[in-house]
Amino acid sequence: MLGLVLVLALCAAPLQQKAEEQYAYVAALAQKGLNEQLAREAQGFLRAYPEHPKADTVRYRLGCALFELQRERDAAPVFQELARRADFEFAAEVQFRLGQCLLGSGEREAAEQALARVLAARKEYLAAPTLALLAQSELARKDHEHALEHFEKLLARKDVGDYAADARCGRAWCLKGLGRASEAAQAARAALASAPPARAGEMSFLLGESLLDAHDAQGALEAFSNVREGSYADAALRGSGFAHVELGDSQGAAKDFGALLERFPKSPLRAECALQRGVALLRAGDAPAAVQAFSSPDCAADADTLAWRARAQDAAGDKQAALSSVERALALHPSAEREQALALQRAELLAALGRGAEAQRIWERVGDDRALLAASVAALSAKHFTEAADLAGRMLERFPQSQLATQARLARAEGCYGAGQWKEAEAAFASAAQSDTDPARALRARSRGAWCAYQSGEFARAAQAFDTLAQGKGEAPEIEEACFMAARAREDAGDAAAAQGYERYGKRFPRGAHAEEASLRGVLLAPAGTRCERLAALEGHFGEGALAARVHYERAWCLYQAKQYADSARELETVLGNSASGAPLEQAGRELAVWCALQQGDLEHALAGWRELARTGLDEERAGTLVSALAAALSKSKREADARAVVSEFGKSARTPAGRARAAFERAELSDPAHALELYDAAAQEASSPIADRALYKAGFARLSAGDSAGAQRCFQKLVDEHAQSEFFHESLFLLGEAQFREGQFEKAAANLERVRREAPRHPLLPKVLFRLGLAQGELGRWKESAEVLGALLRANPDFANQAEAELGRGRALGELGDARGARVCFERVLALDQGVLSARAHLELGRLDYSASDLDGALAEFLKVAVLYAADEEVAEALVLAGRVLEDQKQPDKALEQYREVLAKHGQARYAGEARKRLDALGSR
């Protein structure tokens, strides 16, 4: 037993030593700041030694390296894992970095929690930067109260240092946000004194805004005047304009608002300032200039602008034009409050124009609850639903005790319903039903409330609401509809009880408005094995109408799914050309008929059906799928001209980028390789196209096959980055690794190949994945991983096509790991499997093993076998140089010189030619 323990200890010792060496290397990389290399090595260490005592320290260094590389999203999970180690020596530092990472990805609340834990750890050297980050994040979330607290704590610290200037600016913004205008102005002035140049304009602007809020318009003007350029310059001009307004200087206000329009053509403040310029000009007494200002394209063409324009026209003496502007404003269906003001304005203009009776009627009507309700109902009739809801809401707010309140609640509910505001509508219908003394109207309100739940997609809750209604007595239309809709909502929710619901409806309302549809839907929910038979039993029940056509269509689908294509096509004949079918069902029937013809190999009918279908405007995605199948079938039958014609017709009718991409792809499928690649590229441009991933795959594969590894890499990388759900994803990930391997990018290749191995362990391409992964690991000098991967490949796939190359790679890895015996076995297998370049390389490796074992004769024999028996230029040159080195060791310099001279004479362009020259120089002779 003691002997076994000793053996295990001796085996563990080299592994422990290797781990310590790798840890020391990681630490050295961290010290030198080589973050790219550090990230790779740290990840390798953690994969190899996850239980090592220093694993968490390495993990921390990995997270810091990723953060320094601005890969916050990759760093965050590393720090999150470390954050779970309560006893980790750098726990506070981990929380700080985690907070930074989360801030970088916009997860502010989670970041703030992490930063709060840093403060709780009381690490003094982290306190200032933590307070700075925390306060800035809270300010960005407009949590001004907490941000102010943390800015002030930061400013109170002796080590505030470089954070002071930004903290003073942030504190000023917090006070402004909290409505403490005088304090904000004082803080902004103090911040301005030490603000960096980049923030001076910002603080001057904030000072102006704060002084304006504090009613110091003159001080605000002075502050705004200091903001001459930068991102706050347009806002400062706006503020200056409002300061002039506060001072009663309308001409000055108009000048500043106009300056913004002149200097900042892309400012988001243009519309507001254009309106305010007109208002200022009007107040300054320049009515004609105001009319012109309100007519500017910068002014929004809304009711507010038209109301001001009307005032300017009135002031300019053109009351008829003013009336026209008011009436245009009213035609825009403004809010109830604005409508009331406009109505009064219109009444005044009508009176001035001698139309007193009309004006009187308006004055009598405006402000009355009945008028507001009528306006809401009128808005409903005009389908101005948001306006209708708003008018009804205002009526309820102003006249809560009105006798019309229930009707207003219903109007508000219908307005919200029409606007798609389902939750608001549902609440309004519930309120109306509760207050309504009319049972029939209350029932309708509850029904509409249930419909709100259904329209919002809450099908299970809608089913319950309809169930409750259906339990009512009597046969009111709402009760019958609720009984049907309870089943329909369950069907939409995927609830198997829907079928029973349709059955209950049929028993209770055998002649109800939804009886036929309920019976059909119930059959469609039947198990697949009985559905076709039950559909057949329904034939004749619905006469010749739309439901009868639907029965035939659904039965055709059942037959199609049962691969009874001829029967399916015959069933569709009753759908096609039947006016009762309706356009959507007839189109669907024609589409299915084409599929039936394709499945039967009847290309003539398929082609004719497609052309008829194409005229109906079939959805482009479905049309593209059909075109793909039809073109492939025509091409397979040597009818390439017809196939190209179908694709061309589809391409000409394509209206969307995705449709045009599909057309390009199908043309590529029918083109010769020289032209296909360009078309595949065109098809891949539209990322939203359903065939974009296939196009990228085809383009990448074509490039890889043509030897363009770099181009293939771009295609496969784009597919992997943009189409994570593609059926080609893992195959493309493998091909991406293959292209990167061919480009010598072994690290990237290994990472992508390892990902395939991890995510798709049963993928049909896994043997090829393991093969290329093992070789990539070998190229990276990761001999242990290389040997393990290639060994697993060969054990699981003894008949692997590239078995010889895999054995060669595994042998090299074992040799580098010191397993000479295992390596020799691998190389011997290569010799048994291959008679070409691979066997030459196997001899070279056997020679190296012999040389390492001081068997110079054996090594010389292996090297000379390559030189004599093979014609591969590189391998022969290498063998001659290695043979020469052996001969030198054997004290035969003349013979060694012969080997080197032969390399230069016969293989002067080979890689080992340079080594041959060096040896000749060292021996003093050419």
Summarize the structure.
It is built from 51 helices and no strands.
Describe this structure in words.
The protein is an all-alpha fold. The chain is extended and about 130 Å long. Helix 7 (124-140) runs parallel beside helix 9, helix 18 packs antiparallel against helix 19 (336-352) and helix 49 (873-889) runs antiparallel to helix 50 (893-906). 77% of the residues lie in helices and 0% in strands.
List low-confidence stretches. 1-12
Assembly type:
single chain
Shape: extended
Structural class: mainly alpha
List the main descriptive attributes of the protein structure presented here:
single chain, 926 residues, mainly alpha, 51 helices, extended, disordered N terminus
How are the SSEs placed, and which strands pair?
Blueprint: H1 2-32, H2 35-48, H3 55-68, H4 72-83, H5 91-104, H6 108-120, H7 124-140, H8 144-155, H9 164-177, H10 181-194, H11 197-213, H12 217-225, H13 233-246, H14 250-263, H15 270-283, H16 287-294, H17 303-315, H18 319-331, H19 336-352, H20 356-365, H21 369-381, H22 385-398, H23 405-418, H24 422-435, H25 439-455, H26 459-470, H27 477-492, H28 498-508, H29 515-524, H30 528-538, H31 546-561, H32 565-572, H33 583-599, H34 603-614, H35 620-636, H36 640-653, H37 657-670, H38 673-684, H39 692-705, H40 709-722, H41 729-742, H42 746-759, H43 766-779, H44 783-796, H45 803-816, H46 820-833, H47 837-852, H48 856-869, H49 873-889, H50 893-906, H51 913-923
